[in-house]
Write a structure and sequence with these properties.
Protein name: Tripartite tricarboxylate transporter substrate binding protein
CATH architecture of the largest domain: 3-Layer(aba) Sandwich
Helix content: 40-55%
Number of domains: 2
InterPro entries: BUG (IPR005064), Bug_dom1 (IPR042100)
Number of helices: 12
Oligomer: single chain
Structural class: alpha/beta
Strand order of the largest sheet: 2-1-3-10-4-11
Order of helices and strands: HEHEHEHEEHEHEHEHEEHHEHH
Radius of gyration: 22 Å
CATH class of the largest domain: Alpha Beta
Low-confidence stretches: 14-18, 323-338
Mean pLDDT: 89
Shape: globular
Pfam families: TctC (PF03401)
Organism: Caldimonas mangrovi
Largest sheet: 6 strands, mixed
Family: Belongs to the UPF0065 (bug) family.
CATH topology of the largest domain: D-Maltodextrin-Binding Protein, domain 2
Number of strands: 11
């Protein structure tokens, strides 16, 4: 036997043992958590506290990196391209795993094949809001204004292809009203122009809106949840106002690139479940009426599959055209940055 062949025979098991040992010590260095929206957005609200709690558990920093654009697709693609070693993870949302893939057939990733789905994190209500000084007092007022001036009432979403965009189109269809959709690169820029009076109405998740609702700067017209929230008892749900198909709250989860080793996935699941049960995470969730909803990778995959089916129906019903979404991503609202 030649020396080179002998070296290879002994080196292969040694290399495998080394990789297994490294995985057993995972994580040995800082982990990056890619957030697909801007700093200050609703996903960012939970990314920061999740990173803090997981960093405490591991004794290693978890660094949040915001990669906004394309209704969440830019950040999602960053995770897809990462090495499957557990050192690049992603904050996932209905926008990244459901609405964007359904709406945009030119998307560069498959939500079920190109990610390792690790665990859901929280269920998050959202709300349709206007400035407190707006003449629109109710959701019915908003609908009537849009019917009276088709395309004349501006309604913002966090981006083309986002869950907010698809839900707005479905709501418009159900209400028989035509809005002027104004997409932004995430909730931060949306919030700035909403508060500045540049847009008439917007729907966003409560982590972004709650401080301004509580301060009295924003008025809630309807909440996207299946029942009224204890934090906003006066705000009706879309369901009770006759729009049940768009009343379901959204959710966030943790993902990695496809091909993560099973032992790394298990370590990530265990750490995630501990992190979301930590007092710091639970307190942050309660402040914005969110509900902790961790689960297994299999449960997460099943949930994404159900939602993909639901959003396929919405897109067909409203006749949203994917090619319109692609063009709009190239001319996203100028104020959106990130």
């Amino acid at each position: 036997m030649s020396l080179n062949r002998r070296q290879l025979l002994f080196a292969a098991p040694a290399a495998l043992t080394g990789r297994l040992a490294a995985r057993a010590r995972y994580p040995e260095r800082p982990v990056t958590l890619v957030d697909p929206f801007t700093a200050g957005s609703s996903t960012d609200y939970f990314s920061r506290v999740l990173a803090t709690e997981m960093g405490k558990l591991w004794g290693q920093p978890v660094v949040v990196e915001n990669k906004a654009g394309g209704g969440g697709s830019v950040g999602a693609e960053t995770v897809v391209r990462a090495a499957p070693d557990g050192y690049v993870l992603g904050m996932a949302s209905v926008s990244t795993l459901v609405s964007n893939p359904v709406l945009n057939r030119m998307q560069h990733y498959d939500p079920l094949a190109d990610f390792t789905l690790i665990s859901t994190l929280v269920t998050v209500p959202s709300a349709t809001v206007v400035l407190a000084s707006s003449p629109l007092k109710t959701l019915d007022d908003l609908v009537k204004a849009a019917r009276a001036r088709p395309g004349g009432v501006s309604f913002a979403s966090p981006g083309v292809g986002s869950a907010g965009h698809v839900l707005l189109e479905h709501f418009s269809h159900l209400a028989g009203a035509k809005f002027n959709h104004v997409p932004y690169r995430g909730g931060g820029p949306l919030q700035t122009e909403l508060l500045g009076g540049q847009i008439d109405a917007a729907s966003e998740n409560l982590p972004l809106l709650m401080p301004h609702i509580q301060s009295g700067r924003l008025r809630v017209l309807a909440v996207r949840d299946l029942q009224r929230l204890s934090q906003l008892p006066e705000a009706p749900t879309f369901k009770e106002l006759g729009y049940e198909p768009v009343s379901q709250p959204l959710w966030f989860g943790l993902v990695g690139p496809a091909g993560l080793p099973r032992d790394v996935v298990q370590r990530l699941c265990d750490a995630t479940h501990q992190a979301v049960r930590a007092p710091g995470f639970r307190q942050q969730a309660e402040r914005v009426a969110a509900t902790v909803s961790s689960g297994t990778p299999e449960q997460f995959r099943a949930q994404v599959g159900r939602w993909l089916d639901q959003y396929e129906v919405m897109v067909r019903t409203t006749r949203m055209r994917p090619e319109r979404a692609e063009r709009a991503n190239d001319s996203i609202h100028a104020s959106g940055t990130g």
